[in-house]
Design goal:
Shape: globular
Oligomer: single chain
Largest sheet: 8 strands, mixed
CATH topology: Glutaredoxin
Order of helices and strands: HEEEEHEHEHEEEHE
CATH architecture: 3-Layer(aba) Sandwich
Number of helices: 5
Distance between the termini: 37 Å
Length: about 210
C-alpha cells in the first residue's frame, strides 16, 4: 500500500514537471544561439539585440520589482553594467511577471523603480512572456550571458550572478564576472551554468 502511494506521488510529480517543461519550453542551453527580441523599455523606447550598437554581447537578466532576491542584487546589476558595458557587454534587465498576479511588477512600477535606483541599463517589459519562454528562465534573477559571434548572439553562461545573494562582501564566486572575463579574453568559461536562486516567475494564467 505504502509503495503504491509513493509510486503515485512520484508519477504525479513527474507529470507536473513534464507539463511545466512543455508549457514554458526547455529554453536555451550553453552554446545555443539566442533569437532577437524587441521589447519596450521604461523610457518608452524599443530595445532589441540587433539594435545594440557596438555591442560584443549582452548580460540578459530576467528581473522584476518585487522579488527580494532581485532587490538584494540590484546594486550588483548596476555595477555589472557600469563595469562591462564599456567593454561591449551591457546589462539588459527584463521583467516577465504578469502584473495581474503581481501588481508591483506593472510597467508603471518598473518606471518608478528604474527612476528611484537610477538604472543605467534598459529595463524591458516582456508582457507576452514570449521572451522568457524562449530563454527558459525560471527565476528572478536569472542570467544569460550572450557573446556575439558572426552576427549571432551565442549563450556562454546561464544561472546566478554569484554565490551569495545576501551579502555582496561575502561573495567568493563571481559567476557572471568570471564568465565575462573569460569570454573577453578568448578563453573557455570554466563554470558555464549554475542554479539560479530567486523568486518564481508569475506566469499568466490561461
Amino acid at each position: 500500500m505504502k509503495k503504491s502511494i509513493l509510486l503515485s506521488i512520484g508519477l504525479l510529480i513527474l507529470m507536473v514537471f513534464s507539463i511545466e517543461i512543455k508549457a514554458h519550453g526547455g529554453g536555451y542551453q550553453v552554446g545555443d544561439k539566442a533569437s532577437d527580441f524587441n521589447l519596450k523599455s521604461v523610457d518608452g523606447s524599443m530595445v532589441s539585440l540587433s539594435g545594440l550598437e557596438g555591442a560584443k554581447g549582452a548580460i540578459v537578466i530576467f528581473s522584476c520589482n518585487t522579488c527580494p532576491y532581485v532587490v538584494a542584487y540590484q546594486d550588483r546589476m548596476i555595477d555589472l553594467h557600469n563595469d562591462y558595458s564599456s567593454k561591449g557587454y551591457p546589462v539588459i534587465a527584463i521583467n516577465s511577471n504578469d502584473e495581474k498576479i503581481s501588481p508591483g511588477d506593472s510597467f508603471k512600477k518598473m518606471q518608478e523603480r528604474s527612476k528611484d535606483k537610477k538604472f543605467p541599463f534598459p529595463y524591458l517589459y516582456d508582457q507576452s512572456q514570449e521572451v522568457i519562454k524562449a530563454y527558459g528562465g525560471t527565476k528572478t534573477p536569472h542570467v544569460y550571458l550572450l557573446h556575439k559571434e558572426g552576427g549571432a548572439y551565442n549563450v556562454k553562461y546561464i544561472g546566478a550572478i554569484d554565490n551569495n545573494y545576501q551579502d555582496a562582501s561575502a561573495v567568493t564566486e563571481k559567476y557572471v564576472e568570471d564568465a565575462l572575463d573569460a569570454v573577453i579574453n578568448g578563453k573557455k568559461v570554466a563554470v558555464e551554468s549554475t542554479k539560479a536562486i530567486g523568486c518564481s516567475i508569475k506566469w499568466t494564467k490561461k
